[in-house]
Amino acid sequence: MTAEQQAVKPNMQQPSHETQKYGEIVKLPNGLSEKVCKESVALLNQCLADTITLRDMYKKHHWQVVGPTFNQLHLMYDQHFEAQVLLVDILAERIQLLGGIALAMAADIAETTKIARPPRGREPAAVQIRRLAEAHEHIIVEARKAAKAVDESGDDGSNDVFVSNVLRTNELQVWFLTEHLVAASPVAS
Ligand SMILES: [Fe+2]
C-alpha cells in the first residue's frame, strides 16, 4: 500500500476509552454550580429512563392492540409515542447542556427505570391502557417532586422542562387514555 493509500484508509483499531464518565459534570458557563447541575442531571436522567420506557410501551401497544377500537387506539398510541419522542430529546439535551451525560441505551434504561416491565405477550386493550396510565402517573408524581427540587436549587430551565414539557404532556395523555376506560366504552372489560 502506498503512503497516499494508507492516508485515506480508515483506521478501525481505535482504542475504546471514555472522555467523560457517566455521573461526571463538565462545568459550562451557565451560572449554575457543579453541585446544582449534578443534582438536576440525576433527576433528569431518572425522568429520561422512565420516559423512554413509556415511549417504548406505546409502540408495543401500537403494534399489539386488538379489538373493536383497533384503529382508534392504534393511531392514538402512535400520537402519544411521537410526543414522548420529543420529550426524550428535550430531557436528553437538557442533561447534556448542563454538562452531564444522558442515558441512551436500552440496557441502561432497563436498569434505571422505575416503571414495571410489561410481559412480552399481548394483553387486552383495557390492560394496555391501565399500564400506560400507571406509567404516566409515576412520571407525573416524580416530575412534580423534581420540579420543586430544581426550583429550590435555582435551576429554572430544568423546572420549566419538568413542568411545561413533562408534566403537561403526561397529564394530557392520561386524560386521553383513561376516557377509554369508562363503563360505556367498548374497551372497558
Ligand atoms: Fe405504525
Short description:
The protein has 189 residues and is mainly alpha-helical. The chain is 65% helix and 0% strand.
How does the SSE layout of this entry go?
Blueprint: H1 3-8, H2 34-64, H3 70-97, H4 106-112, H5 125-152, H6 156-178
Helix pairs in contact: 2-3, 2-4, 2-5, 3-6, 5-6
Bound molecules: fe (ii) ion.
Fe (ii) ion binds at residues 62, 78.
What is the residue-mean pLDDT, rounded to a whole number? Answer: 96
CATH structural fold name = Ferritin
Helicity, as a percent range:
55-70%
Q: Runs with pLDDT <50, length 5+? A: none
Overall geometry comes to flat
Beta strands, count: 0
Please state the second-level CATH architecture: Up-down Bundle
SS element count, helices = 6
End-to-end C-alpha gap: 71 Å
Which class do the helix and strand fractions yield? mainly alpha
Radius of gyration: 21 Å
- Which cofactors or ions or other ligands sit in this model? fe (ii) ion
Major sheet description: none
Work out the count of structural domains: 1
CATH homologous superfamily grouping: Ferritin, core subunit, four-helix bundle
Q: Briefly, what CATH class?
A: Mainly Alpha
Secondary-structure element series? HHHHHH
Strand content: under 5%
Protein name: DNA starvation/stationary phase protection protein
Pfam family, one: Ferritin
Organism: Variovorax guangxiensis
Family: Belongs to the Dps family.
